[in-house]
Amino acid sequence: MPLPLRLTFAALLALYTACVGAGEVHLNPFDDPFLRVTDGLGACPVPQAPVFTEEEFRAEAHDRSQRGVSCWMAGRCRLPNAYLYDKEIVPRVQKAIVADGRFAGTSVWALGQRRFVWLQGCVETPAQAAELERIVRNLDDVEGVQNQLMVGPRGSPPYKTGR
Length: 163
Hints:
By secondary structure, the protein is an alpha+beta fold.
């Protein structure tokens, strides 16, 4: 390997090591699907995308390896890891909600992890929140729904907001 290439590699490795040591925050290191589904309430607090420090990332990676495969080992999943479903589920969540047509006045985000869907954002009525949860719960492969929707854009959201 030529000297300039080796020096560049060594510098990048040193930079990475320094960043990891400083507790650098990584935005969505597991590539969990996180989509804005509707955009009708502009003042709605924006949920924080999945973020982890290096330490949190390592701990979560270990837990995810165990939790993800347990579904398959128990015979409840057709895929060998429950996290493999998420990239299919969250776009179907978006498609189902948009196709329904009743939620144009809402601002909703969906996060998928291990066949669970977190609904975050703002709706106009409690009935909309309940109906959104019902729609998502009835989609194929969805194990559960965490309804963190708030009525209107005012007040403290029941989820972390963007950094």
